[in-house]
Design goal:
There is one protein chain. Helix content is about 10%, strand content about 35%. By secondary structure, the protein is mainly β. The chain has one domain (about 10-195). The strands form three sheets. The protein has an eight-stranded antiparallel beta sheet with strand order 5-7-8-9-14-13-12-11, with no helix packed on it. Strands 4-3-2-10 form a four-stranded mixed beta sheet. The protein has a three-stranded antiparallel beta sheet with strand order 1-6-15.
Length: about 200
């Protein structure tokens, strides 16, 4: 397990260089005013009608053409700043390629042509449990009893360089899915088939 979870910086450097090493990705999360909300069904593992694990073409058919499509990131929705309220995410084991579809308020992460995670930041995005962007974190804790949270530094290095703490939470949903929330109130919802870190 430790081998799968390497330093965030190493994963990002590898992506920037165009490599596909194993590790964790630091993915930004925050709402955008012109973002389109999506429905996330964490029980079925679907987002806007397509299932995690589906071919990338199914995601594009459901969501439309992304504003940006790249093999090298960035790994956060369009209009967001890097490192803003981030969660760590494991890459699928043995992946050979990584692609990111970036929309306003949504990033779709793809490995080897199949969707493995989404990060949603659009206000109005909700899960089947009723928790979404803008919800109090207490609602997420009530809906997901196994939710583990920590207060961590926001990791954003912009003036005035003040240290700001933010809640980052994750829960395992059966054998296949993980859900994550950032912020209180919630700023982002992540659904993934790979491990989430805090």
């Amino acid at each position: 397990m430790v081998a799968r979870f390497t330093a965030v910086a190493a994963a990002l450097v590898g992506l920037a260089a165009g490599t596909s090493g194993c590790g964790m990705l630091d993915v930004a999360a925050r709402g955008g005013a012109d973002a389109r909300p999506v429905a996330i069904d964490e029980e079925r593992g679907t987002v806007a009608g397509f299932e995690l694990g589906a071919p990338v073409d199914e995601a594009v058919a459901a969501l439309g053409t992304p504003g940006e499509r790249s093999a090298h990131g960035p790994l956060w929705p369009l209009g967001e700043r890097p490192g803003r309220a981030s969660l760590n995410m494991a890459l699928p084991a043995g992946h050979r390629s990584l692609e990111v579809l970036r929309y306003r308020g949504l990033a779709v992460l793809v490995a080897d042509g199949r969707v493995f995670a989404v990060i949603a930041t659009a206000t109005g995005t909700t899960t089947a449990s009723g928790v979404g962007v803008g919800s109090p974190l207490a609602e997420a804790r009530a809906a997901f009893p196994g939710l583990r949270c920590a207060e961590v530094e926001r990791n954003e290095r912009i003036p005035p360089f003040a240290v700001e703490l933010v809640a980052r939470c994750r829960a395992r949903l059966g054998d296949r899915l993980r859900v994550g929330f950032v912020g209180d109130p919630v700023e982002s919802v992540t659904l993934s088939t790979t491990g989430l870190g805090i």
